[in-house]
Batch of 2 targets.
Target 1
Amino acid sequence: MDTSQRMQRSWRQVAALAAFAVLMLAPTTQAKSKKVSDYFLVCRRGDPDFAGCVKRSIEDARPRLVKGMPEVRLPSIDPLRIEQLEMQEGQGNFRFLMRLKNVSVTGLKDFTVRSIKADWALGSWVLDMFTPHQHFEGQYEMEGRLMSLPIQGSGDATMDFDGVTTIGELQLKNVTRKGKAYVSVDSFRWKIDVENAKSHFTNLFNGDKTLGETTNKFLNENWRDAFDTYKHLPEEAFSQFFTELQNRFYEQFSIDELYPE
Ligand SMILES: *[C@@H]1O[C@H](CO)[C@@H](O)[C@H](O)[C@H]1NC(C)=O
Ligand SMILES: *[C@@H]1O[C@H](CO)[C@@H](O)[C@H](O)[C@H]1NC(C)=O
């Protein structure tokens, strides 16, 4: 490992604390008669093809996931609105900070579930998903050094990703509330890979046209390096985002309602 790799490694530890996402909170409604089966195909925990059932359940829910299910606190996934994504790492001369606000993500409706492994008793899941195209837009603020290039600006940002593979390693735990058993997310590791990426930032360097164009061009020509160097930041931000999203749903239904015997 050379010095720069070692430095990247230690920035990552800082970054682990620094990447976070803020959900757009859907208003809560307190309908008493909510049933899981009104929203999802219910999978029995003893089903010999439990993982296959969960896969079908997710695919079957696609139109409702796209529309959003505010009654059970699930927002629309297409467009998916994220109030803020913040990614930060490094220190001093190597610091990099990017804040994306009012983010809208489109393309998630075309997801496919490539495979699911699920061990009900251990609460361990691996979800392998693919999306052909994802488009992000929002307002950004950015400063510091990106791949040793000084960068600074605030304005509008768009990012396009083709062939997005997302692998989520999910560990659930059991929690008891008021004598009832519920599940909750213990950890959710998120790995992202893309086949192609393109971005555009307006108003870099306070609107300096030449510097802005050069920087946008540099980032697009070197997208693979940039993505590989910084992908742990969105991975951590999205892990948090989807942990919060799942927990909001899991809080509402006991284990026996979610996965009956
Ligand atoms: C947030 O984004 C939406 C569309 O993506 C846009 O219409 C709206 O003006 C933005 N709001 C702010 C405060 O920038
Ligand atoms: C959670 O509780 C259920 C029901 O008692 C049990 O079958 C399962 O193994 C538990 N899961 C974990 C991760 O401990």
Note: The first strand starts at residue 20 and ends at 23.
Target 2
Amino acid sequence: MIVPAILLMVCGLSGAIKKGDDLVKNRSFSIDYVNNQFVKDGEPFRYVSGAMHYFRVPVHYWPDRMRKMRAAGLNVLETYVEWASHEPQPGVYAFEGNLDIEYYFELAQHFNLSVILRPGPFIDAERDMGGLPFWLLSVDPSIKLRTSDKSYVTHVEKWFSVLLSKIKPYLYNNGGPIVTVQVENEYGSYSPCDRDYTSWLRDFIRQHLGKDVVLFSTDGDGDGYLQCGKIPGVYATVDFGAGSNAVESFKPQRHFELAGPRVNSEFYPGWLDMWGEPHSTVDKEDVVKTLDDMLAINASVSMYMFHGGTSFGFTSGALPSNTYTPCITSYDYDAPLNEAGDPTEKYFSIRKVISKYLPLPDFPVPVASPKAAYGHVHLHYVANLWDLLSTPIAGRPLQSTYPMTFESLGQANGYVLYCTQLRGHFPDPALLEVKGLADRAYLYIDMEFGGVLSRSGSLFSIPVQATDNQNLCLLVENQGRIAYGTGIKDFKGLTSNVTLNGHILSSWTHHPLPFNETGSLEWLNKIEKKRGTPIKGTMSLFTGSFAIQRNESDLADTFLNLSGWHKGVAFLNGINLGRYWPVQGPQVTLYVPKNFLKAWPSKNRLILLEQDRSPCEKNELGCTVEFVANPVLNGDTPVKKRSTKLFKKHV
Ligand SMILES: *[C@@H]1O[C@H](CO)[C@@H](O)[C@H](O)[C@H]1NC(C)=O
Ligand SMILES: *[C@@H]1O[C@H](CO)[C@@H](O)[C@H](O)[C@H]1NC(C)=O
Ligand SMILES: *[C@@H]1O[C@H](CO)[C@@H](O)[C@H](O)[C@H]1NC(C)=O
Ligand SMILES: *[C@@H]1O[C@H](CO)[C@@H](O)[C@H](O)[C@H]1NC(C)=O
Ligand SMILES: *[C@@H]1O[C@H](CO)[C@@H](O)[C@H](O)[C@H]1NC(C)=O
Ligand SMILES: *[C@@H]1O[C@H](CO)[C@@H](O)[C@H](O)[C@H]1NC(C)=O
Ligand SMILES: *[C@@H]1O[C@H](CO)[C@@H](O)[C@H](O)[C@H]1NC(C)=O
């Protein structure tokens, strides 16, 4: 996504901070340990902040969302910085469009919002590999992430040198909005507990940002977390959710910071969702009460999330609960501003509480933006898995004796088709074992679908009927790398040998199917309808085009209803909207912001990559999707109880 120049002009931002004016003000931001407060320009300062990740909200909507956050009475905005997005390949940096963090800082300043910056390098945030770039595992498979391991530190050094030099001019003391900077992220929950690493990171940040910048750390509200999370010279803060006893929950912070302001750096007004587990909601009354209790004792609070947004594309991660549980595409989070940026009842209740403590700006009260139900789009079946192998969509095939991981193939996300020719005489049936599967595999023998294996379902073996010379293939899907804990070194694909009847299978051909370059998908738009019908269990591609009888200014956000489809990925006008899996739930619709759509008379192009089963196997007329005006995030799920408690994932 690219920011059109016009947007910058509309917002009246010339791209530069008014440094002259600000210097006159003699800006300063610090901690007053005598009066247990922050001090901004010599005045006591307390913040009520909200998290909005720039990488989860279309850049066109940043001004709208920030205005609404300011209108709720917030005086600070919080975001992580995601290394993986900014350095997709070693030494290749991206800071444009949706990754333009400087624009984010400038907009925040424009809306009189200060910024709490959490640059990681590890961030969790339910992102693929907790925001670390996958290629760390390609360059050094034995790398020790989040430790003082030379190999890891060398890459952090390079990245942080680039990042911190961009951040420095935006520090509060330098005329920008950034008041505090977090070191690492909930490090006290990470078992290696390498204090040399956190001290090194602290010093590296100070060396680049200057000695005056207020650094902080965040950990769970227990002495056990702070024990390792506390970094000398870095202000320790805690996190806890709605329904907690505010006075009690701040006590652990006091055990490690004898004086200074109470700070909850992640107050959870909602919670995240995983595929196959019920939608989480957090009671508005609990949020209001805990927030009020915290503000009443002068605490500074940052709400995680205030606006969650969407994990577009393949960016969402997975939780290590039940060994492996992938997160959904939506990051609505039951937050005060919902996924589409509309204020909820919770928003207004929170605004009311904040108004008791901070002045509300003289802004109009936000209302929900219009949504559109553009209706049904008919889709054509154009290709299947086997057709793709000879097109630009598939990467160059690679041979090796034993299976290679995505990381050793240099592939971040998507799928890899692993194939081998069987040699020998096997019992009927024989057991195929795929112990190192990450994360989901479709088995084919001579191109015929033979079943699904699944890491999240702990299904790692399957009986097969196979004979000499037959071709055995496994299409392996990466469902997102684990986002936190000791499992973040989450190699994808076939991570150990595959055996048939106990014998190791060798001589593999790898067909990369990364679906990361929208240019290659253009090829699908050129081809006509495919003959025959899609086959269950065989990846099938569908395309459809539609025009919207509205001009640019009349376009509205919408939701793609995938009810009736099984599991896959949707692409609109070359943008990956994210993974869908309505049969697993709870998410049934995908959010489509209006700027992803084209106005009349242009045609919009939709591509569905369906892995399992389409509604058109028997009935061509059923080959449709529908753009609807309301999201469905609370669909039915196979599991009726969540595998983790709300607000508990520190391990
Ligand atoms: C700026 O702040 C410093 C330190 O707080 C103070 O010594 C100095 O007098 C201030 N300058 C102005 C122009 O206010
Ligand atoms: C920011 O604050 C200044 C000074 O209080 C005010 O004049 C200005 O209108 C505010 N800007 C916005 C966008 O609220
Ligand atoms: C909160 O701040 C006010 C004003 O500085 C002070 O009077 C009060 O004692 C503080 N309350 C707590 C619980 O620290
Ligand atoms: C897409 O993935 C391939 C490897 O699978 C990689 O070489 C290429 O650079 C990636 N392209 C983009 C745009 O990330
Ligand atoms: C696969 O088996 C071969 C032969 O026993 C062995 O050398 C290799 O390390 C194994 N690979 C993995 C990933 O376990
Ligand atoms: C867009 O369409 C609306 C309603 O049809 C109309 O009122 C408006 O003038 C149009 N705007 C432009 C720029 O054509
Ligand atoms: C989504 O589609 C299903 C099946 O056609 C339908 O029953 C459901 O009402 C739709 N949901 C919305 C929000 O329109």
Note: The mean pLDDT is 94.
